[in-house]
Amino acid sequence: MATEDVSHDLSSLLSSEERDFLIRNNGDQVPVSGLVGKNILLYFSAQWCPPCRAFLPKLIEAYHTIKAKGSAFEPLPFGDGMKQILDKKFKIEGIPTAVAIGPSGRTITKEARMHLTAYGADAFPFTEEHLKQLEEEIEKKAKGWPEKVKHELHSEHELIRTKRSSYNCDCCGESGYSWSFYCKECDFDLHPKCALKEDEDTGTEKGKEGFICDGDVCRKA
Q1: Within a 13 Å sphere around the CA of 24, how many CA atoms are in the beta-carbon half?
Q2: Beta-ladder partners of 166
Q3: What are the DSSP calls for 97-111, one per residue?
Q4: Which of 157, 156, 158, 166 is closest to 191 using CA atoms?
Q5: I need a labelling partner for 162 at 20 to 30 A (CA). Which of 26, 29, 97, 192 fits?
Q6: Distance between alpha carbon 43 and the CA centroid of its chain, in Å?
Q7: Closest Cα to residue 166, out of 216, 95, 112?
Q8: 15, 177 in Cβ contact below 8 A?
């Protein structure tokens, strides 16, 4: 399910007795009162986290695309200790994680990162009804893809068009959802975009001590 049945008073969630503003990474102050009534995206990440660095360009691209269409969400700054409080509040177990909060203060989804990866800026505003519509469009598009393909990265077997909940693409290294061109025998996945055209390989990196980075998420060890 895309929708989380949780509501928050943003003022109490994001402010304290000491102050009613947040601090951006560049030191600018952001009044909490200015965030009330807006779509908010809480993005939990770290500079040392390879999956976070890989996802950040997608997040920035989606933000600018959404803004250009006349809509927007407010990227919440985490330049202070508020991050630790929100980690506990939303029970964040791994990074990167993106939590979408609607104008009413209701948590729409804790899986905004997954939806942005799967659909890009089209995932906004992350509501269950909207995501269902996107999924129907993907299903319709998938009917036009071949059932089997041969690919130079996996010449041993044909890759079968397969419905998959989640996976890491063995071509570009990024996470994938919904559909894959898959070899079950070898547990080999390709994004449809990678299977149907050439793409560049990406390397892997190590995370920070105390964390285990497995595929597209880093969790506390």
Answers
A1: 9
A2: 177
A3: EEEEE-TTSEEEES-
A4: 166
A5: 97
A6: 9
A7: 216
A8: no
Q: Has this prediction a pTM greater than 0.85?
A: no
Partner residues linked to 74 by β-bridges: 40
DSSP bridge pairs for 169: none
Query: Which among 186, 198, 184, 190 is positioned nearest to 169, based on CA atoms?
Result: 190
Query: Left (φ > 0), alpha (ψ -120 to 50) or beta: where does 210 sit?
Result: left
Query: What single letter denotes the amino acid at residue 14?
Result: L
- CA terminus-to-terminus distance, the chain: 28
Dihedral pair phi/psi, residue 85, rounded to 5°:
-65, -45
Q: How far apart are CA 219 and CA 221, in angstroms?
A: 6
Helices and strands (H, E) in the chain, number of each type? 6, 14
- Copy the structure tokens of residue 135: 């999924």
pLDDT in tens, the chain (221 residues): 444 545 566 666 676 666 677 666 566 777 777 777 888 888 888 888 888 888 888 888 888 888 887 766 666 555 556 677 788 888 888 888 999 988 888 889 999 998 888 888 899 999 999 999 998 998 998 999 999 999 999 999 999 999 987 888 899 888 888 899 999 999 999 999 899 874 334 344 445 566 666 656 666 65
Find tokens 């009162």 and name the residue.
33
CATH number at 6-128: 3.40.30.10
